[in-house]
Write a structure and sequence with these properties.
OB fold (Dihydrolipoamide Acetyltransferase, E2P), 17 helices, 523 residues, two-stranded antiparallel ribbon, five-stranded mixed barrel, alpha+beta
């Protein structure tokens, strides 16, 4: 299997990158998606081209090189097709008639298909959700329409997922607020297939026509997520629960702005997004829990895999979560069948899944940073670790060895993401290299304590007090350290807006540098 290899047949990172077929498939798919974003082509022509290329691939399968090359071209065309299909709107899409309702309110009917969020704003409680439009009212009556819109109701409502609702409001394109770096709110929504927002005034009538019309499974997932959030809000302060909801449940909506800025300035904002480290710790917690059960090791691993997939669903399957879960699950399966997992195949498989489900993930900053981080660790860390071993060859102190390894990982990640961070946020954060040495171990403690609190409070509510007090202490230490790091001279600095050419030159330089150093070490 591509995902696994014999433990004895280990290869170094350079050989794995070159010889992995899944990597070529993912790169071809990604390039096709990028081509589809900037170059329009007829869908039916692309479809027939893909079918033709598949037939040619089958005919030339005996010629492995030619067949493989044609297959990569086919995947490229598939990526182009998926991107174009994502942009195509049905004839009865609500977007086509939105321009006729610019001057006044429009009455809309549809199904709530997302979790309903409620936040305090200057105008009171703001209720937001995604609506799958079913019909829109015109002077001549109701007309069937399709498409998804974001609804903002400026007032408290008892709307929930799965409700069929009817209300009237202002239908408009997403506003472009003051941009932070290159982030565009309109593009962000557009890549989730949301092109319009319906703003409903505070006193406007909201009618719930039917309840529980959505997926029962999805409704239960939303209820479970709200239940877990309540465990944090009941036992922690508002700021602390906001941090824990971000770190463990992927909900960053309640993090105070001043705390979020501290994480951004120190380059530790990745702590607030569920990543491989989070998933790895959660997997360890699940496995430790299953160890007390009288089942064999393979059953414990399978149970851990099932719980990890369930965790991924509960915290919303964002790119970084899917990537981390796929890789962790693959490693656990490899352990269960006593085969070593192939890192690049795991990474490629997760990217393939994400890009197939939503081609626009390739343009998501979180998606890009997540994969850059992992690739940078895989490619640069062994080199840094080898150099560190030569420098600290005589030092056998455990804590020194741990700090050196953390420094190597942090340096590898910083080198990897520096170009992307500079491009998107016009910021360079050298303090990240040092900050991660302390913050990452603290994150491990926070995740373990948070997971323990959720687990214990569900069975023994009084037992949550101990975990809550420990969490308060560790969270305050972590935020305090990040504050101190942000005040260090040269901790971060802003730069002028740079182009993609500058970013490309940066990554070409570090890739060539890494290859050159690798060849020199081998000699």
């Amino acid at each position: 299997m591509l995902m696994f290899q014999d433990v004895k047949s280990r290869t170094d990172s350079d050989k794995v990158i070159v010889r992995n077929p899944l990597l070529g498939v993912v790169v071809s798919l990604a390039l096709g998606i990028i081509a589809g974003e900037y170059c329009h082509f007829q869908l039916d022509v692309l479809f027939f081209l893909i079918c033709f290329l598949l037939i040619v691939t089958l005919i030339t399968k005996k010629e492995s090189f030619v067949s493989g090359l044609i297959l990569l071209v086919t995947v490229f065309c598939l990526g182009w097709f998926l991107c174009q299909a994502q942009k195509e709107l049905q004839g009865d899409h609500v977007y086509h008639v939105a321009k006729y309702y610019r001057d006044g309110p429009v009455e809309v009917k549809g199904l709530v298909i997302s979790n309903v969020t409620r936040k305090d704003s200057l105008q009171g409680v703001k209720t937001s959700f995604v609506l799958d439009v079913q019909a829109i009212k015109s002077p001549w009556g109701w007309h069937k329409k399709t498409g998804q819109i974001l609804v903002d109701i400026f007032g408290a409502t008892n709307i929930n997922y799965g409700d069929i609702v009817k209300f009237s409001g202002k239908l408009h394109k997403p506003y472009e607020f003051a941009k932070t770096g290159r982030f565009s709110y309109r593009e962000y929504l557009n890549r989730q297939s949301i092109k319009l927002i319906l703003s409903v005034k505070k006193n406007a009538p909201v009618e719930i026509l039917k309840r529980n019309q959505g997926s029962r499974f999805k409704a239960n997932v939303f209820r479970l997520r709200e239940y877990l959030k309540k465990k944090f809000t009941d036992n922690l302060t508002e700021n602390e629960s906001g941090l824990m909801c971000a770190i463990l449940l992927g909900d960053r909506s309640n993090i105070p702005v001043h705390i979020r800025e501290l994480f951004v300035k120190t380059g530790t904002a990745h702590i607030l997004a569920i990543s491989g480290l989070h998933v790895g710790i959660v997997a360890g917690c699940f496995f430790m829990f299953f160890r007390i059960l009288p089942i064999n090791r393979r059953c414990k691993l399978v149970a851990t895999v099932i719980m990890l997939i369930a965790y991924m669903i509960v915290v919303e399957a964002r790119p970084s979560v899917v990537r981390a879960t796929v890789m962790t699950v693959t490693i656990l399966i490899g352990i269960a069948i006593e085969r070593e997992s192939d890192f690049i195949s795991m990474l490629s498989l997760s990217a393939l899944m994400l890009l197939t489900v939503n081609p626009y993930n390739i343009f998501d900053v979180g998606f890009q940073l997540s994969y850059i981080c992992v690739v940078a660790i895989f490619w640069f860390y062994p080199l840094f670790e080898r150099s560190a071993k030569m420098i600290f060859a005589d030092n056998r102190i455990f804590i020194v060895q741990v700090v050196v390894k953390l420094f190597c990982v942090s340096l590898a990640v910083w080198i990897g993401v520096a170009g992307a961070i500079a491009y998107y946020f016009q910021m360079v954060t050298p303090v990240t290299i040092v900050a991660n040495i302390l913050i990452v171990p603290l994150l491990s403690v926070v995740v373990a304590l948070g997971f323990g609190m959720l687990l214990i409070s569900s069975f023994v509510p009084s037992g949550a007090v101990f975990f809550a007090q420990c969490l308060k202490l560790v969270l305050n230490i972590k935020v305090g350290l990040i504050f101190l790091f942000s005040k260090m001279p040269g901790a971060y600095f802003y730069i002028e807006r740079i182009s993609l050419v500058h970013v490309a030159l940066y990554y070409i330089f570090i890739v060539l540098l890494r290859i050159g150093i690798g060849f020199r070490i081998k000699k």
